[in-house]
Prior knowledge:
132 residues; single chain
Amino acid sequence: xSDPVKSVSATKAKSHVPKIESVAxxxxxxxxxxxxxxxxxVDKEPDLKSIPxxxxxxxxxxxxxxxxxxxxxxxxxxxxAPISEAxxxxxxxxxxxxxxxxxxxxxxxDAAQRRATFGFQCAASxxxxxxx
Length: 132
């Protein structure tokens, strides 16, 4: 009897079916770029730039916050998501630094969404290249 895992892998290898990545996988792989993209957008926003913070003050909490988002994205449908301590810390920190809730949410998730979209576009491009 053949090993089903090997059989499936061999079939996929022969048909050149590219791996479809989840948003969580793309976000995890691109984490440093997401943070850098986010920071470059912050630097272009007068309302955010007006709050004087160094790199660590502005981004130090982001890796843990993004890891919490990634963990939530990987939960099975219907599973209750745990409360993110990093998100609470982030909100408190930004409030103390002078951010409004709208400022923090809008600019952070815009960068994360753009990076995830870019990752999916790259994957689609690779699929087209592999099929040609």
